[in-house]
Amino acid sequence: xxxxxxxxxxxxxxxxxxxxxxxxxxxxxxxxxxxxxxxxxxxxxxxxxxxxxxxxxxxxxxxxxxxxxxxxxxxxxxxxxxxxxxxxxxxxxxxxxxxxxxxxxxxxxxxxxxxxxxxxxxxxxxxxxxxxxxxxxxxxxxxxxxxxxxxxxxxxxxxxxxxxxxxxxxxxxxxxxxxxxxxxxxxxxxxxxxxxxxxxxxxxxxxxxxxxxxxxxxxxxxxxxxxxxxxxxxxxxxxxxxxxxxxxxxxxxxxxxxxxxxxxxxxxxxxxxxxxxxxxxxxxxxxxxxxxxxxxxxxxxxxxxxxxxxxxxxxxxxxxxxxxxxxxxxxxxxxxxxxxxxxxxxxxxxxxxxxxxxxxxxxxxxxxxxxxxxxxxxxxxxxxxxxxxxxxxxxxxxxxxxxxxxxxxxxxxxxxxxxxxxxxxxxxxxxxxxxxxxxxxxxxxxxxxxxxxxxxxxxxxxxxxxxxxxxxxxxxxxxxxxxxxxxxxxxxxxxxxxxxxxxxxxxxxxxxxxxxxxxxxxxxxxxxxxxxxxxxxxxxxxxxxxxxxxxxxxxxxxxxxxxxxxxxxxxxxxxxxxxxxxxxxxxxxxxxxxxxxxxxxxxxxxxxxxxxxxxxxxxxxxxxxxxxxxxxxxxxxxxxxxxxxxxxxxxxxxxxxxxxxxxxxxxxxxxxxxxxxxxxxxxxxxxxxxxxxxxxxxxxxxxxxxxxxxxxxxxxxxxx
Length: 720
Prior knowledge:
about 5% helix; cell outer membrane; Beta-barrel_TonB_sf; Maltoporin, Chain A; mainly beta; five-stranded mixed beta sheet; 6 helices; 22-stranded antiparallel barrel; transmembrane; membrane
């Protein structure tokens, strides 16, 4: 990969030579009031009846992030939870969760096919290939289908530049992280291209057993067949390998003893995505595109979260697992957009077909648990050792063909001046043709749903607007959940393997009002949203005493809150932003057990775990006039307290975190430094525990104060 990155430099020099005679005739403007994701086509903010935010190229470039969560968390109402080495979970109108209630897009196309959600999918994103990030909060299943429930995040890639551009950089920290990155592009005649690559390496970090390496390469080629017709090719290839340090117990966390309990756990990924899009503008009011795409993903794990230890049974033994989840996708999506003079009407309509064959297997490993000194009933594990791998003891072993078909349409029009009405609907049909080797069963499962939305924008003044919407969300259970043997069945238990064939698809109804205003000649901008969302058959995890998970998709939940964002630029030197959310996530009707002997029968009325009421991210920037090429900022991340368990007995206090950034541009060179966790705060990204009274908390420890340094060379012929 490093050779590829260095080769980009040589390629850029060739392109420069080919283009030296060209003059600069292009001005680039950031159209911050235009969004693509909310309506699948470029739409003004004042015509978009949803809560949507954009992270611009300026924000991305100045953040100089080691991982994507550092950028995404700048979005009001969003908490992307760092789980180490670019692994993550998410909280958007949901608690911090790994469930399939978020849709991750790359240039409008899902990174994963429906039914194969992976909460770590964003570790495949190339941070050096981003033009902007758009985040839609709340359900948009009426446009994007299943999983677009809590939020939809669209990572928009850099396009080929008109003139030759090239950038090359290195950055790292004092805990053994290093990254080399390069990108370049140009347009020669009718052909434009852009290539971006990164190569990251972590060695001997602050947390034991936390090494990782990641290599990503993105390539885009645009062929302008004519002024009205374009052919666009996009390809991404990435390899990732990470040790999985896992969580630590409370005593080790408080003592800052960052020793991993497992030195054998890992996650590895091999991902390829490629697409070819044909775009055509029929006239100034009509355009169409059709995209054919292919995905090839291989994900293998010996996961730390798969370790099961039950001290009540035998405190010196445990079990783990090794698993592999591999799929390919063959699909196409087409869309047509048409505008009419009558009531300024716009129609967007499209259809999708996706065929994704998948195979998954998981088998058990037997472990020895070496305990820390302690009293009976409060044992903790110092480390685990692998005794033997048992490929003959399967936890899961299935193949499946997933067929996704969908059709959608959206209509917007102006019934009266300053009012925009939006209506949309989509029908999804997901058919799974499976073969389960553990119970020798085969058959079909079908999840289908029609989802709708209706919204209205009212813009009484140029400087303010209001909106309201009703939207529906839909999320079928992931197939990994369906075909995984229930805890206590299969293997050597003597109980025939049982599976989650009866898991139901979750459905959501969201009601929302919000608005925005801009004052002081656009120096002060404020946006807000109030939402109320009900979920039925929401797929939730019940953590059992041995750290295994049981799945439930029954009952009702309620999610309600306020999201807000403020941007204030009193002068060219100072920029201040404040963003956050207050939310409540509650079990309304949720049965945990049908056994009369179980103490815990239901969770009705309890707060959902890992659901901080307050969270937010704010930052103040200083660009001094006395040194125009200097930038500085201080960032504040707040996460409020939340329950660690589902029965609401123990809370984690949350945290306040500060980060500092500084950068200076000298000629074509940019020098920068970030101080993450400026005050060296002791905190955890996540804390969880099972519902048993003697359960031990698991802390996903966060990094101590970290110094990041980097240098980047930026070249553009238009500046010559």
